[in-house]
């Protein structure tokens, strides 16, 4: 009886041992190496998404231009008649490429056209047009300048740029013009001879 109780006790409560069992050094080393490898891997393989993965746009492409964009204004306001190529529509809408009105040495010619529009016979590249060119007087000086500069340097044109100050001067000088220019009759004098 005594004996079997002693055995029972031994089974339930094993002899206590002194100290705790240390984690084996091998395991610690392996964990350490894994951590080192993880950090090293993160460090060497970190690669911010390259722009080429998407549509090539970078942050700068989304910046809002501080000044008026002549190309955008042209697309929004002129393409319907003068076409994206600036070639116009034969007999109806005159071309802006190689036009004597666009390429005149004085950008004021085109500024006048945009500020007041044209109504009446207008000769462009030897072809006579007789339509209605609407005015864009509601546009700011900056916008007209951007448009004129854009058209004068697009579609094969290589005429000089202009600025808002020049547009303001022309606006002031022609403020008494209450109706559209009468084509050649009003504007012809401004062309290079
Ligand atoms: C509703 C159609 C229409 C729109 C929109 C229009 N134009 Fe015109 N444009 C004409 C017509 C028509 C003429 C010729 C007028 C005539 O026959 O008397 C003309 C003439 C011109 C001329 C002088 C002739 C030439 O071909 O060089 C210029 C420059 C011009 N337009 C620039 C512009 C610009 C820049 C815009 C946009 C801001 C614009 N036009 C928007 C119809 C349009």
UniProtKB/TrEMBL annotation:
Identify the keywords attached in UniProt to this record, alphabetized: Heme, Iron, Membrane, Metal-binding, Transmembrane, Transmembrane helix
Cytochrome c domain mapped to chain residues: 65-155
Single Gene Ontology MF annotation? electron transfer activity
Compositional bias segments (type: Basic and acidic residues): 173-193
Pfam assignment, any one: Cytochrom_C
Region named Disordered: 1-21, 171-193
Which protein are we looking at? Cytochrome c
Q: What top-level branch of life does the organism fall under?
A: Bacteria
- What residue ranges are annotated as transmembrane? 26-43
PROSITE patterns, per database record: CYTC
């Amino acid at each position: 009886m005594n004996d079997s109780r002693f055995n029972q006790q031994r089974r339930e409560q094993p002899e206590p041992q002194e100290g705790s069992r240390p984690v084996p050094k091998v395991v610690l080393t392996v964990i350490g190496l894994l951590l080192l490898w993880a950090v090293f891997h993160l460090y060497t393989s970190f690669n911010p998404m390259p722009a080429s993965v998407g549509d090539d746009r970078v942050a700068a492409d989304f910046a809002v231009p501080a000044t008026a964009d002549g190309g955008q204004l042209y697309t929004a306001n002129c393409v319907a008649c003068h076409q994206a190529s600036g070639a116009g529509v034969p007999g109806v809408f005159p071309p802006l490429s190689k036009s004597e009105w666009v390429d005149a040495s004085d950008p004021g010619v085109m500024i006048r056209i945009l500020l007041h529009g044209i109504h009446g016979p207008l000769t462009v590249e030897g072809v006579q047009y007789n339509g209605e060119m609407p005015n864009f007087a509601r546009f700011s000086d900056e916008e007209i300048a951007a448009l004129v500069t854009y058209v004068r340097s697009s579609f094969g044109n290589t005429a000089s740029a202009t600025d808002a100050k020049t547009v303001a001067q022309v606006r002031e000088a022609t403020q008494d013009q209450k109706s559209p220019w009468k084509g050649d009759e009003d504007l012809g004098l401004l062309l290079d001879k």
